[in-house]
Structure formats: structure tokens, C-alpha cells
Amino acid sequence: MNTSVEIAGVKLKNPVMTASGTFGSGMEYSDFVDLNRLGAVVTKGVANIPWEGNPVPRVAEVYGGMLNAIGLQNPGVEVFAKRDLKFLEGFDTKVIVNVCGKTVEDYLEVVERLSDEKRVDMLEINVSCPNVKEGAIAFGQKADALFDITKKIKEKAKQPVIMKLSPNVTSISEMAKAAEAAGADAISLINTITGMKIDIYKKKFVLANRTGGMSGPAIKPVAVRMVYEASHAVKIPVIGMGGISNYEDAVEFIMAGATAIAVGAANFHNPYATAEIVEGIERYMTEQGIGDIGEIRGIV
Amino acid sequence: MSGKMKCEAKVLSQELLSEGIYDLWLQVPFAKDVVPGQFVGVFPLNKATLLPRPISICEVDTNGSAIRLVYRVVGSGTAEFALYQPGDYMMVLGPLGNGFPLDKAAGKRAVVIGGGIGVPPLLETAKRLSKAQGSKAPAKISAVMGYRNSDTFLDDEFTNFAEVYVATEDGSLGTKGNVIDAMKEQDVPCDVIFACGPMPMLRGIKAYAQEKGIKAYLSLEERMACGVGACLGCVCKTKEVDEHSHVKNARICTDGPVFDADDLDM
Ligand SMILES: Cc1cc2nc3c(=O)[nH]c(=O)nc-3n(C[C@H](O)[C@H](O)[C@H](O)COP(=O)(O)O)c2cc1C
């Protein structure tokens, strides 16, 4: 049985990744999961300098999911490289570093700083975080801005570049095509869907940031539809995520056209989720007589 | 290293302790590893929910491999927990957080201070302090508890381990006012404080400790998601840039919930 998949020449032992921001750099979840079992660890968004993030409350539960407005708190790329990448050195899994910024220059600084880091297999560029005010989201919501930043990053990057797309757009196909046209090696989607929750007794917003990004099982149908549309719009590989909690969900995304999948908020409900999904996919393939995971990709 | 796990926990008993406050004993494999002040994440079975509910550990029975949770029903998740019967199973994640640094009480007059639903974790704290031997033993243990009114809970159980003082907002029992009022009125001897309760109370304790030049260790609460330090949902402001975040934010779920009051920017 072959569960391995390839993205821009990087071979993953299986299609299961962690979704950025929900798994740290793997340290915290290595109490629960053998990181060697995963196709890739995708790290929390990292910027050129440390970011404080948003005031609390930063998280809230909603029906079938959650809202978060962490605001991309991170220790900056220097600490990240010395500590987090060092920690990941010991594991036999691919490392995808999620990059955030407020300006094009911020992104480029991180991309350049990481360019000679051997432990970085790929870069995932987050142009879709709904929780940061300073314009970063604009890169993810306007096709020409997305094209522009993708092109600039591709000029500098030494590792393959995955552009992470926002679902908060009118046409996901148009965004996917813009990323591809600018030279992106792959796209990943979806980031969180902008939401809001109000406490009717306190008569206040639940999150200090007022709005937050929704994730979890409730967003899955939206994500599956968008992955399907995007994978029909472009030829580059698509990494699917949004509400995946078990192997059935993962297979659904692969059938919609995803080459790999990522597990996010489900880690909070079940810290063993990623490893269980790897095992579940293997079991499913055996039961269904599927020799190569590629056989079911985009099968619908 | 840390032995955190998500596991099934058998309900051994559950009763109503006071209005809206439940007293639950759960059998868990990690009971012997628990440090007072640590907490568990409890998952509702309701499929519409995603996140664990953080609940502090009130008491540990190391022989029976069991932990006691005393919690208030505040939403649909805890309302579900209140329905569990002996023999049922719940899903828990634990043990989480750092716990109180009991060694700081060695040779000192220790005071545990709890406000409302912040009282429970101090019971095991007082119990362990009272069991400390030789040079590790505190010179004295007092417990100061604040409640809204005379409908109190757990205060009677502290008498086994500590000299007990109670404050009520309406004055129906003990000192009228808050825990600081009780400390002052009763002149509670105090060299070190371990506290858990609402933010205004903790702020008051920090000010009181600073005024007296003594150490205070405060257990904080915040809305949490992962509970294991990965998501950065539950942070608190610190005075200095902290080791993990490299900004002035510490993770309550893993760097805390207990912090040295001097390190916090409250
Ligand atoms: C707490 C939290 C933090 C996140 N942080 C990031 C981040 O730093 N960078 C990023 O690209 N996406 C971030 N995301 C989005 C996830 O990677 C993922 O795209 C989204 O949550 C949908 O997947 P899910 O429903 O499985 O959680 C975050 C999501 C959550 C819940």
C-alpha cells in the first residue's frame, strides 16, 4: 500500500499534516503523538519579529466549532529557527513553516532568513489570517495583491512555496488561479471563516477582538466545496483543511481533489487525532482495496 | 516527560454540594502524579462541543487513583457533567498546568485563599501542606475563604488542615466583605499566600502581599482551547518577556495556572 504523496518534489510519507497554529511546533503534542508518524508538521505562523497577538479572550466555542483571534502571537523567526527548528531536527517528518507578516517586506525577511535552514522543507505563506488588522488579509482577498506577493516571495524563496488561501472571498477559483499564475508550488485552504459571537447576558462581544476565525467540524462542508473548486481551477497540488476530525473527513477532502490534508481544531478535542487519521486512512485503503492513495484523489 | 493523557474516567460518585455546585469523584490513571493547583480538561459528550472545560483538581485519593472535582454549572457543558451518575464514563485530559510551589511554604506561615469557585484547588493544597514533614513543613497553615453568602461549600473540610476564616459579601457568615477584609480583621498571620479566585480578588491579594512584603502565588483563569500550550489562546500579561513566547504573554494552561504575583502585569 502506498500512502505517500508528493508536493513540489517533496515526498511526504502520508497525506496527513497538522494545521498551522493548532499544533505549536509539535513540542506540546509530542506527549500524545509520535511526530514520525505524520506526513508533515506545519508550524505556527512566524513573523520577522516577535508579535504580541491580541488581548484575551482570544477563543470561544461555537456550535460545532470554535472562534479564535490569537492575532498570530509568535516569538519571531530568530527564536523560532534556534528553538523550534532545532526541536524538529530529530524527527522523520517534513517541516512546513507557516509565515506571516504585515507588509511584503516582513514576509520576505522571514523567507530569506529561512532560506538556508536545512530543516525547512517547504514554506506556507499565510495571507489569510482574519485576526490581524494591518492589511495582511488584503493579500489574501484581492487576486492582484495575491499575485504580486506570491511572485515576490517566489523570487526569494529557496524552498517550495505553498500559498494559504482565505475562504472569505467571492471566488476561490480566481484566487487559486492567481497564486498559480504567480508561480506558487501549491495552495492550501481553507483558513478560518470570519465569525462573531455575542454574550447576550453581558451584552458584549465574547472575543476581545470582536471577530474571530471559525474552525472545527461545522466548517467542513464549506471547506470541501472550496477544495473541490480550487483543485479544478489549478494544476498545482491542493492541501485541504477545515473541520477534519477523523479519517472519513480526510478521505472526503482527498476525493474532493486534495493531495494532502491538515488537521486543526480537532487536535484540541482529541490530541491523538493526527496519528489516528494516519491509521484510519491505512485501514480504509486496505478495506477498500486501494493500492495507492492517488487512486482516490479527485475521484468524484 | 509530563505524562499528560486523554482518557476515560469512571465516575465514582457525584453529589450536589451547594446551589449549582457539584462534587464529583473520578477514577483516573494519573491521580498519583497530580500536584495541587493542577487542573483537568473535561469533554462534554455532546457532539456540538469541541473544547475541554478546564476544571481544577480539588482533592486526590492516591490509593484509589481518583481525583475530586468541585465545579459550578455555568453552561451547557457543565450542565451535562452534572447529569453523570456513578459508573458512567467521562473523557478527561490531564493532569494540566504547573500547580502551587508548596516548597515555598517551608518554615513559613502559609495562607491559602480561595474565592467562590476558586476555593476547590486549595483543599488539596492545604492537605499537602499539612502533610509536609520536617524542614519542609510550614510553621502554620491558615485558610481564608470568600463567598457571596452563607451558602458556603468546602469550608468545613479545611478545618482538618488549617485554621479557617470565612468572609461573605453579605456578612451572613464570618467577616462582612472580601478575603482581604477577613485577613485584616482577623489579623491572619501570613508569610506566603497561595490563592485562586476571581481577578479582582487576585489583584487585591497582590496589592496586599506587596504592601506586606510577602510572596503570593496566584492561580489564574482564562478561556482556553487546547489546554496543552499549543494554541496560545489563554495568555496573561507578564512584566518581563517570557521564555516561551518572547513577548510579555505567558500561557496560563502550561506556564501557569499558578504564577508568582511579582511576575504578573495585572
Ligand atoms: C487557534 C488557531 C490558530 C491558528 N493559527 C494559524 C496560523 O498561525 N497560521 C495559519 O495560516 N492558520 C492558522 N489557523 C488556521 C488553521 O491552520 C486552519 O486553516 C483552520 O483552523 C481550519 O482548519 P480546522 O477546522 O481543522 O481547524 C489557526 C487556527 C486556530 C484554530
Explained architecture:
The complex is a heterodimer of chains A (300) and B (266). Chain A is built from nine helices and 16 strands. By secondary structure, chain A is an alpha/beta fold. Chain A has a single domain (5-53, 70-195, 214-296), classed as TIM Barrel (Alpha-Beta Barrel). In chain A, the strands form four sheets. Chain A has an eight-stranded parallel β-sheet with strand order 3-16-15-10-9-8-7-4. Chain A has a four-stranded antiparallel β-sheet with strand order 5-6-14-11, with no helix packed on it. The longest helix of chain A has 16 residues, at 273-288. The model of chain A has no long low-confidence stretch (mean pLDDT 96). By secondary structure, chain B is of the alpha/beta class. Chain B folds into two domains: 5-96, Elongation Factor Tu (Ef-tu), domain 3, CATH 2.40.30; 102-219, 3-Layer(aba) Sandwich (Rossmann fold), CATH 3.40.50. In chain B, 16% of the residues lie in helices and 34% in strands. In chain B, the strands form three sheets. Chain B has a seven-stranded antiparallel β-sheet. In chain B, strands 11-10-9-8-12-13-16 form a seven-stranded mixed β-sheet, with helices on both faces. In chain B, strands 14-15 form a two-stranded antiparallel ribbon. In chain B, strand 5 (59-61) and strand 6 form a beta hairpin. Chain B is globular. At the A-B interface, strand 5, strand 6 and helix 8 of A face loops of B. Flavin mononucleotide is lined by residues 19-22, 44-45, 68, 70, 72, 98, 126, 129, 164, 191-192, 215-216, 219, 241-244, 263-266 of chain A.
